Amino acid sequence: MHTLLMILLVIICIGLITVVLLQEGKSNGLSGAISGGAETLFGKQKTRGVELVLLRTTIVLSVLFFLIMLALTYFNL
Questions:
Q1: pTM listed for this prediction
Q2: Which residues 6+ apart lie within 8 Å of 68 measured at CB?
Q3: What is this protein for, i.e. what is its function (predicted)?
Q4: Fewer CB within 10 Å, N side or C side of the chain?
């Protein structure tokens, strides 16, 4: 069980890194965070198409990462 969870964790980590690196930046550094960051914070700029798929994939993979880490901690006791 521990080996299976470790293999799944490595696969999810590689997928999560890949998906995060494929996303383009929402702002250009600190100046974008000050001037245009509020628009993305409150949802005025809607994501569409590929970016929406990448965003949802990131959320799913991060939740799976969290659950597998909890399972590994539980089964390691």
A1: 0.71
A2: 5, 8, 9, 12
A3: Involved in protein export. Participates in an early event of protein translocation.
A4: C
Whose CA is closest to 17, among 57, 44, 66, 47? 57
* Orientation angle between helical segments 50-76 and 2-22, nearest 10 degrees: 150
Please give the single-letter amino acid code of residue 45: Q
Length of the chain: 77
At residue 17, the pLDDT reads: 95
Q: Where are the alpha helices (DSSP H) in the chain?
A: 2-22, 29-35, 37-41, 50-76
**Distance (Å, whole) CA 11 – CA 47:** 26
pLDDT in tens, 7-63: 999 999 999 999 999 988 766 555 555 655 555 555 555 667 888 899 999 999 999
Would you state the structure tokens that stand for residue 8, as one six-digit string? 């799944």
**Residue that is written with structure tokens 């930046």 in the block:** 25
